[in-house]
Amino acid sequence: MSPMLISIVVPTYNEEHGIHEFYRRTKAVLANLEPRFSHEIIFVNDHSRDQTYQKLLELSKADNTVKLINFSRNFGNQMGITAGLDYAQGEIAVIIDDDLQDPPELIPQFIAKWEEGYKVVYGVRPKRKNINPIFKFATEIFYKLISRLSDTSIPKYTGDFRLLDRKVIDTLKDMREENRYYRGMVAWVGFKQIGIEYERDSRYAGTSTFSPSKYFSFAVNGLTSFTDRPLYFSTLLGTIITIISFIFLATLLIQKIFNPNFSIPGWTSLVALMLFFGGVQLLSIGLVSVYISKIYREIKKRPLYIIEETINFDKKS
C-alpha cells in the first residue's frame, strides 16, 4: 500500500530564532511515522519582518517536503491557517504553531485517535508553563463567557493545535467567511471529536507577537462569530431600564399632582443616572456596531488572503 500523506500546517510570523528547532523536532516525529505516512510541511509566512522568510527559503531548498506560502502582507494567524488548509493535500492535516509551545511529539497520539475513528483530535492545555496570572484570569473569563453565550459548544482550554480529517478539511474550505475563529468553526462542523491533554511549554525562543489588543480583538471575534446573544442581552437590558424609568417617572408625577409643593432633590443622583443610562446606550450601540462591521466586511467579498509566491508545491513530497 502507498503511504498516506499527512500535511503539517504551520502559520508563522517573526519566528526566525525558532524555525530550525521546530523543523528538527517535527521532522524527527514525521520520520518515525514512515513508511505508513509520507508528509508535507506547509509554512505560511504572514509577511514576517525578520529573517523568517530567508530561513524558510533555505529549508525549502534543502528539503522539498517543506512547502512555503508567502503572503503579500500581514493577514493574521487565522488566515494563515486558512491558506495552509486550502493548499494541504494530505488525508489528514495537523495545525501547529512553530513557537514549540505545542509539542510536535504529540502528533503520533493524535494519529492514533484518528485511526480509532475520530475526525478531529485537538490539544487541551489546562496547564501552561510561565503563564501570566492576569492572562490566565482573562482566559478563564473568556471561556466562561463563550460557553454560556455561544450556540456552539467550544471545548475549553483548546488552541489551534489539532488534527483534522480530510472530510473536515473539505468542509472548512467551503466556509469562506472573513471573520474566522477556527476553534469555533471546527466545533461547529461537528463530526466525531476528542481532546488530548498536555501541559503547554514556554516559547522556545523570541517573544510573542500577540499583543493584549490582539488578544482582545481575537476574543471579541470569537464571541461575536458564534453567537448573537449579546444583541438580545442589550435589548433586554434596555427594556428593563425603560420600564424602571417609566415607573420612576410615574411615581414623581403622582407625587407632584397630589403635592404641588413637592420638589425633586438630589442633582448628584440625577447626574449619576444620566451617566449610567448614557453608558448603557453607548454599550448597546457599540455591540450593534460590531455586528454591522462584520456584515460590512463580509458583503465586500474580498479575497481572504493574497499570495505573493508559493514554493515546492509543484514537487512531490
Record the strand order, biggest sheet: 7-5-6-4-1-2-3-8
Structural shape: elongated
User: What is the helix/strand order?
Assistant: EHEHEHEHEHEHHEHHHE
Contiguous uncertain segments of 5+ residues: none
Quick one: how many beta strands?
8
What's the topology here?
Blueprint: E1 4-12, H1 19-32, E2 37-45, H2 52-62, E3 66-71, H3 77-87, E4 92-95, H4 107-115, E5 120-128, H5 133-149, E6 158-165, H6 166-173, H7 182-189, E7 193-200, H8 212-225, H9 229-258, H10 267-299, E8 307-311
Parallel strand pairs: 1-2, 1-4, 2-3, 5-7
Antiparallel strand pairs: 3-8, 4-6, 5-6
Concise account of the structure shown:
It is built from ten helices and eight strands.
Description:
- The chain has 317 residues and is of the alpha/beta class.
- It has 2 domains: 4-212 and 303-311, Alpha-Beta Complex (Spore Coat Polysaccharide Biosynthesis Protein SpsA, Chain A); 229-299.
- Helices cover 49% and strands 18% of the residues.
- The protein contains 10 helices and 8 strands.
- The chain has an 8-stranded mixed β-sheet with strand order 7-5-6-4-1-2-3-8, with helices on both faces.
- Strand 2 (37-45), helix 2 (52-62) and strand 3 (66-71) form a beta-alpha-beta unit.
- The longest helix is centred in the C-terminal third of the chain and has 33 residues, at 267-299.
- The two termini are 17 Å apart.
- The mean pLDDT is 80.
